[in-house]
Amino acid sequence: MIELKKVRKNYGSKVALRDVDLLLPRGEIVGLFGENGAGKTTLMKCILGLLPYDGSITLDGAPITPNNISQISFATSEHSFFPGLSPKSHRDFYREHFPKFSDTRFEGLMDFFELPKNKPLKHFSVGQKNQFEVILSLCQGADYIIMDEPFAGNDVFNREDFYKVLLGILEPNETILLSTHLIEEVSSFIGRAVLIHRGEIIGDVSTLDLEESGSSLIDFVKNTYNYRSDRVSKTLEALTGKKE
Description:
Elements: E1 2-11, E2 14-24, E3 29-33, H1 40-47, E4 54-59, E5 62-63, E6 72-76, H2 87-97, H3 103-113, H4 126-139, E7 144-148, H5 156-169, E8 175-179, H6 183-186, E9 192-197, E10 200-206, H7 207-213, H8 217-224, H9 231-240
Parallel strand pairs: 3-8, 3-9, 6-7, 7-8
Antiparallel strand pairs: 1-2, 1-4, 4-5, 9-10
């Protein structure tokens, strides 16, 4: 289990995370939702130790250090691979550094996305780079897979098919924390939704509870964020003088 207790992060005078408490047990697929600048990426980077923070983040009760960081993998649209190397070279590198690296997943997902294995990644399209980033995160052998907007540049058919493949290959002990703006698209894929706003967790619900209550994920998000359905009509009226 990854546990965050009173995690705080400031960028100068700007508060990025404010006393965040969060539990991420094994075997969950968790969606992390929030507007741009809400703190999603900052939270993920704090878990990975890429940013200094105040508070406590532990993995199975222990601090996250070089001794256990291999239990966490990261897929980011900022990319964390070596652009001059090919996928095949990355596979060899990961094999050497991660004993639980899965060749079966690597070969299967490379075939699924139809990615070339010997072409340097700097010559890949943005969508292909993001696909490969996801492949590496899933093949590392980590128990916790953190994904920050991993589907940018991918068409809807690739994304929908990938969700199905991912659900089919995940082991019971693997946990995914997924940050995305594609709320409706992932609503049937995730099992839990965590909402962050201005650095604070303002909602945390299981999709099963939402289903049993007759509410949709998008409705839960809108209600939690106090979404104003009249904002479009009011803006158009102010700009054009016409009422909708």
